[in-house]
Design goal:
Blueprint lengths: L4 E5 L4 H13 L4 E4 L10 H4 L9 E4 L2 E3 L2 H12 L10 H13 L4 H19 L5 H23 L12 H15 L8 H12 L2 H24 L1
Parallel strand pairs: 1-2
Antiparallel strand pairs: 1-3, 3-4
Helix pairs in contact: 1-3, 1-7, 1-9, 4-7, 5-6, 5-7, 5-9, 7-8, 7-9
């Protein structure tokens, strides 16, 4: 346990949610410092002193500073998870965790966030209407991603690398939730996968996702009101 572990997060961010949920699941003592993305707090001089890239999340543990979420997930699991469950030592299992974490950047992450931003966030902030061609492009890619996830990463397994949840599953579920809240219709097995991860985490899962869902609801209402 280490109270020196600090997460700089906003739970509207997918990787920030994954890090918060990991720390809660492991039971490691930590602080969560809230940086409000919608208010631009990540762009302030104070936050730039922590993260010069001005991105969320960031993790500080004593003298160790990590600005990339996947590196932070690996670090926290390796240092604080005594069960060895979240980032398994077995190389055959761990390599599949790493493979998904590397793959998701240009797939689940890119197009899930792209769908969310272009269907809701940017139209509300810029007071425009969603660009259907851009939204449909992300929607098409999300369909492919769902199929790839089913056929390659899951197969007949309940989770990505083995028969229990790991940091790869945690991040995947958090990324899948973003376009889902924005109206994307994930099909099985993605929906069932999300439910399995949620069951493994327990009540903290919905608690950590609540602010993102509230933001998405607010954005949807504002967009709908403008269309009337």
């Amino acid at each position: 346990m280490s109270a020196s572990l600090i997460l700089y997060v906003d739970h509207v961010s997918q990787p920030a949610r994954a890090l918060s949920l990991l720390c809660r699941a492991i039971g490691v003592s930590h602080q969560e410092k809230f940086i409000n993305l919608m208010k631009g707090e990540h762009m302030t001089k104070d936050y730039a002193a922590v993260n010069p890239f001005k991105k969320i999340p960031a993790v500080k543990d004593g003298n160790t500073l990590l600005l990339e979420s996947c590196a932070a997930l690996r670090y926290i699991s390796s240092k604080y998870d005594t069960s060895g469950k979240w980032y398994p030592q077995d190389l055959d299992v761990r390599c599949k965790v790493d493979e998904y974490l590397d793959w998701q950047h240009l797939n689940t992450r890119a197009h899930g966030m792209g769908y969310f931003r272009n269907s809701l966030l940017l139209p509300v902030l810029k007071k425009t209407i969603p660009d259907k061609s851009v939204v449909n492009g992300h929607k098409k890619e999300l369909g492919r991603i769902g199929r790839d996830f089913e056929k390659y990463f899951l197969g007949s397994k309940p989770f990505i690398s083995c028969d229990h949840v790991t940091i790869a599953d945690l991040l995947a579920a958090c990324e899948f939730e973003q376009p889902l809240a924005a109206g994307y219709d994930w099909q099985d097995p993605v929906i069932s996968f999300i439910q399995r991860v949620k069951s493994e985490i327990g009540p903290e899962y919905d608690k950590v996702h609540s602010s993102m869902r509230e933001l998405t609801k607010s954005l949807s209402e504002k967009l709908a009101a403008r269309a009337v």
